[in-house]
Amino acid sequence: MDVGTLVAGLLTLAILTFLYRDNPIYKMAESLLIGVAIGYVLVVTWTNSLMALLFTPLFSRGELWLIVPFALGFLMFGRLHRRTAILSRIPIGVLIGSGAGVAIPAMLEARTLRQLSATVGPVFADGTVDISMVVVLLGVLSTLIYFYFSREQVGWWGRTARLGTWFLMIFFGTTFGYTVMSRMSTFIGRMEFLLSDFLRIIS
Amino acid sequence: MKRLESRHWVFIGLFLVVLLSMLLQVDLGVEVSSDTTRLFDYIENLPPGSTIMISFDHEASSLPEIRPLALAVLRHAFARNQRLVGVALLAEGTGIGYRLMEQVGKEYGKVYGEDYVFLGFKPQYIAAMLSMGESIRQTFPEDYLGRSYDSLPMLQGVRNYDQIAGVISIADGSLTTHWIEYAGNQYGVRVSAAVAAAMVTTYDPYLASGQLHAMIGGLRGAAEYEQLIHQGGSGLRGMLAQTTAHMYVILMILIGNVVYFRGRRKRGEG
């Protein structure tokens, strides 16, 4: 067995000890996981981003236009002191402004318009009623009514809002079911590793 | 030693159920859904030699669930002689993505640089997706191994998404949404996904609207895909364990409810 498998197996068992109760072995494995993850991300970001895209082109290849992003990034450190904190607003402004400019049209198109056109489809097609379209339409309208708080939810309005809660519950139930399935898959995956690679009980 | 509480017995029960199911090593076989078939057909019907971008948009913690999905898709793509460009838009997916591509590449005798490449990680995923729409070479001047883009034979002629047949996002979170929003909507890239089961309901509306071309989800999705490519893996092996574990959870919910309502009746609360 190679060292990597041995360490992975022992750390998996260490994490599973939490199922009994919180303990120092679990804490050690948890801290190690967080530390290694942060360290890994730091190294990857330094190598692939700062060195490859900024420092090397700027200082080795003399691509002087990179002084602009370098200066903007540097101004972020202004937050470290009260008197220079205002300088950090410049890169934050650039970041938010450009981010919003890019995101708003894209999200409006992908999350609103395209979804809306997919939701409001023809209820009657070829002389028959499309039941699934009726259910979707009913679900969307009743859920929207549930979230409309400017009118008291009584009478037919209230009943429709209650129907909306049923649709919401079905959605939450489905999502929760899939989440349980996801966690089970993770557990089964670790069990498979323990039984095959670590303990070599199954092939 | 602390006395075992009821939750400990529930955990022990689950452990035994999964352990016994895995020791039995029974291949249950699964019914393949139309969503899984759609992704299979998509890769199957691409002309051999098409370039597919595989994006490893996940963290290490979801590897047990993501790995079978990724392996099944990679095996199919390599078996169909497609050329693969790997990227990672989450830092933790970088090493994992490279290792998976290398492992499956070796299985099929593929040569790095000619049949597949791994370009590595790029921070600011939205900027990276948009930038690749203009120039993949400028976004990734070097690959994961530090070789220049121009020195990789497979990438000659691959300038931007126009030369990419589609993107398959292997994700455990919401990154696929950004592929749909930016690469899909703005550059017309065909986006498909292999996602953790917890994300299936998030992406279902995109699948229904046609913004997402195809999707497979969770261990079940991996098992279905393994069945389609006639190659067993962790997905099919884990199906019995997943089925029995779910039955065990349902049983626990029923027992929990019976205990709760009996307790309420005893206390005279209804």
In words, what does this structure look like?
The complex is a heterodimer of chains A (203) and B (270). Chain A has 203 residues and is mostly helical. In chain A, 74% of the residues lie in helices and 2% in strands. Chain A has a domain at 125-203. Chain A has helices at 3-16, 24-60, 67-75, 89-119, 131-146, 155-198, and strands at 124-125, 128-129. Chain A has a two-stranded antiparallel sheet. The longest helix of chain A has 44 residues, at 155-198. Chain B has 270 residues and is α/β, with parallel strands linked by helices. Chain B has a single domain (28-235), classed as Rossmann fold, CATH 3.40.50. Chain B is 53% helix and 12% strand. Chain B has 10 helices and 6 strands. Chain B has a 6-stranded parallel beta sheet, with helices on both faces. Chain B is elongated, with a radius of gyration of 22 Å. The chains are: A mainly alpha (203), B alpha/beta (270). Chains A and B meet through helix 2, helix 4 and helix 6 of A and helix 1, helix 3, helix 7, helix 8 and helix 9 of B.
